[in-house]
């Protein structure tokens, strides 16, 4: 196997050149794992390992080669050793790997580290003998500063949630609804956002996220049409909310400093209460002028990027928190320090009087008036208060700027939600006990009235809280729009595309234009409910996404956030719909109609995209009905289900009336998550189809009955063919429909072939494996099937993976599926990787751990260096097996040579010409011996061992390949030999 190419050809034909400057590689990609020189057990074994030095300017250094001698024959002349070493040095990278038999394609390629920094590239699995496989890296892209949980999620969510409603309308709500119903109101609205946060946490922790926040999550779960329609509505909601916050800040400022108004104020006199006071409202033109100026200033801050926003955000949040502290201090000291009309201090009498509701008519200013035109009830208060609990998506909107989305979004969003909900509940009790009901209903700034030591502190808190919320809205909305544009679904949005690591300046300008347009309108009484509706539409989409993914429970659904259930997500979605209709059925219809129009436009004009959404997964579970919808395209890794084709025909005889090995059915069930999926049980009857058709029908009924008895979800098929090889070749080509074709061939390892002298088995076995490779089917061969546990036999210990070649993640996924079964749930996973130098071990271990973390898989990583592999001693039993295999191979080879001399033909095996290089055969035997010794050393107590299946060398006889395999499985009681195919079955992204 050669590895001297300077570029790697990706599936789409793009060439990626090797980077010139190694120093510019990031930590995860700058490490170089060099291939190892192959050696033969009978000749000199000089392993030449190259390491890239920091100062080198080439990926393949031409000097300072590090030479390590392993197992040198003492009788070898020094001149021969020098010549051998010189030849290897000249060849440089053109040398064979120790693991050539397994199609070893370098450790970096095994890990697929390129896929950790972007979309996964479909790359072939282990190559056939003689193929060239290399791995290269493109120049790394500059990465922007990333935010953590506190600055990236908690603070933006807290600033968005804790807004103007709390300061200027919350005490009024307590006066109108009473303490009892106000508590119910907070719990009702808070439950909606809490359940949405739980759903958001589940989806966000199910893999790495790109930019776009809730749009990215909804689109990947419900499809591009739904994602884009809800995402654009949520973008509009954020942009309009920014205008609402700006107007709230300006209005509060003009109320606090009336002299700052340029135009005359509007004065509204009130009546109908014991405390009749004038209420002043700023001029519309003042709101427009100041609002435009403030919007432009905030846009300049947003243009500074996330780094600038993180610096400015504390300046907005700290005074807000200080103002809250002043309010609570003022409430506890209200009666003693500053007695005022209507302020009773904390009083049980006031608490009792304010417990019940007092719904009534009010004027436009919200002051009780018998002649007023507005009547308030609980439903109307839901619409007024609900904007005070929105803002939970502020952190996820900035998902592209977070260091660890899987941790930051759940922790930060949930912390902000619980903090603000607790604050609201406590405030209901305190406001209800500190003043009379008339004071609650007439003093819109009661929070400022009771604040200690000065009301001005609360005015500052109101202005900064609203400006902070506006800043977060103007930050999240452009990034959301840019993420939608980058997915290239709608061509009309191409103007808003932005490169990775760059700020969305065009999207920011567009957001500012919408925000300023709403500020110019000045009256958001018609627009604000629509903004709230858009938030609720987005929340419902997040809940429905989590509901669908949780209900389908595909193998890719492994969120790190464990506190979720499809029932909670369904309740959250229903709550969102109910709240929408409680607020306004008219605005609900308008919002849903707008989302439907966008959906229709995307479905007509948008480009198709396969994001592995939940609906595709549902199609798999509704197989026949949805087969036409699935088509014949490649399956996305998130929608990948194992569909095993279980080869029931044994290498020997089964008891009468037992059409399939009992443990094969048990193993097929172990490959499904919670029993979901389909298995195809196939057996072959030798003979002529016309003569044995009835026998095949009877055998099929018998096999179906047996599958039902074993409670295995699957179907039975019987094929009549002249022999096993021809029958299997027909099966592997034709079995299944569309994407419901079997993708894994499961069969038993022929352990009996030598014991019972079944000389036809090697050719059949190798032919089946080759047919699977040609048909691009994965292969799982079970050795020790008689010892495989049933569902009642609990296993303890470990599940050990010897990850030698890149297999699309199949071996990792199989180990995870085994853990979902009762028999293996007490086991832990160990991943063994081979490093080629001791210095590579720690770096490789860190890379594998990061890779497994991003895949949401928990496993212990063990790195074994080549030196330790070579240094380990051989067990007597294994050495004897190795010697016996050598003797048998030599005998086979001698027989073939003798037959060729007699017939005057080239070497023939299994009816085909072969070319046998004796040194290569010795090397393959030695490779499998060392791997077998490693398994016996480290996996003695393992419940099951998984190892890569080496492809049969095309120029070796089948009997030779069986010798390699027998040596590999020697003294390993329970072994799964796995080979992937040209598709990834796991993905890093949500």
TrEMBL record:
Example of a GO MF term: potassium:chloride symporter activity
GO CC terms of this entry: membrane
Membrane topology recorded in Swiss-Prot or TrEMBL: Multi-pass membrane protein
Amino acid permease/ SLC12A domain: residues covered: 152-620
Subcellular location per the Swiss-Prot or TrEMBL entry: Membrane
Keywords in alphabetical order: Glycoprotein, Ion transport, Membrane, Potassium, Potassium transport, Symport, Transmembrane, Transmembrane helix, Transport
SLC12A transporter C-terminal domain segment(s): 662-783, 794-989
Entry's transmembrane regions: 150-170, 182-205, 226-247, 287-306, 313-334, 378-397, 409-431, 451-471, 506-527, 533-552, 573-602
Family: Belongs to the SLC12A transporter family.
Name of the protein described by the UniProt record: Cation-chloride cotransporter 1-like isoform X2
Lineage of producing organism: Eukaryota, Viridiplantae, Streptophyta, Embryophyta, Tracheophyta
